[in-house]
Every structure is written in C-alpha cells, then in structure tokens.
Amino acid sequence: MGVSGSGKTTFGATLGRRLRVPFADADDFHGPANIAKMSAGIPLDDTDRLPWLRAIGAWLADHTGRGGVVGCSALKRAYRDLLRECAPGVGFVHLHGQRDVVRRRVASRPGHFMPASLVDSQYRTLEPLEPDERGVVLDLDASPDDLADTYLAMTHSTIGIPEAGQ
User: What does the record list as coiled-coil region(s) (predicted)?
Assistant: First the structure.
C-alpha cells in the first residue's frame, strides 16, 4: 500500500517472484471512467473507488490459501477494511517516504495515467496503518530487493505479518 509512485508495483512484483505467488497491479482493476478521471487530474472519490476495491478484494479472496501479492494504494482504513472483509488474512506493507521523491517518480513515468499533480491529494487522503492492523511500514527509498529482504526477515521472525508499527 502507499501513494502513487511509492514503488508498490515494483516491490509487489519482486515480492511475488520471491514468494513464488502471483502478483496483480491494482491499476489493472480500474475501469475506463476512473482512468479518464485521473488522467484529467481529478482525484477519485470513495464512490469511484468502491467497484475497484471490490474487484481487488475478489482477487485476494480467490488467492486465499494459495497466496498472492497486490500492489494497491489502500490509502484509507475503510479501504483496507473492505479488503479484509473479502480476504480476512490479508496484511499490508506500507511503502512510505518523502513526498518530493514520490513526486519525481510519478513525473518520470512515461505514459501512466496518474499525473504528478495528484500526489498531494494522495498524501492528504492517506491514513497510515493503525496499531491493530496487520502490516509493516517500510522506507520507499530502499531498493525492491532490500524491501523484500526486510519484509521476509520480519515475517519469518514473527510467523506472519506483524501488527502495524512492528
């Protein structure tokens, strides 16, 4: 989870390969209306996100027991709660870091529908993991391999995804 440009896709694909489970990019679950709205520099609202989150939740539920990794913003607690309703065992890795780094990353992505102008709205929307949520916060400045190493070391030592803040 994290704002656009935090590295969710790159890290998620890396983690999926390392765990030998499928990876899905949540961007692929957006409908044409959502993509058009974001391409125009208009932030999505909760109504826009609901069908998208349900589709991601269905993918997670379909991969329960077999494993899977999804790169998804999941910026609000309510969004994560919806994903947990679909797949109760889901845990989150929050890729967090400096806004300027994220803004540069988003501005340098050729052909992506998410403009750098929406980075600030993503940070305004972001609700960090709460102590009762299963998940970890990692520094988005680390390389995807280092992030995967850190995550796997944390989950291996605790047998599962730790509570937020651990």
Answer: none
Q: How far is the C-alpha of 66 from the C-alpha of 90, rounded, in Å?
A: 12
Residue with tokens 């780094």: 101
Q: Are 125 and 76 in contact (CB under 8 A)?
A: yes
Which strand (E) or helix (H) includes residue 22? none
As a whole-number percent, the residues of the chain with pLDDT over 70 amount to 85
**Confidence bin at 166 (pLDDT 50/70/90):** very low
122 pLDDT higher than 70: yes
pTM: 0.83
Element (H, E) at 70: strand 69-71
Domain-wise residue ranges, the chain: 8-158
- As a whole number of angstroms, the distance between CA 165 and CA 18 comes to 23
Say whether domain 8-158 belongs to CATH 3.40.50.1220.
no
Residue 69 reports pLDDT greater than 70 = yes
The structure tokens listed for 25 are 């990019």
Phi, psi of 106 (to 5 degrees): -65, -40
> Is the alpha carbon torsion for 24, 27, 28, 31 positive or negative?
positive
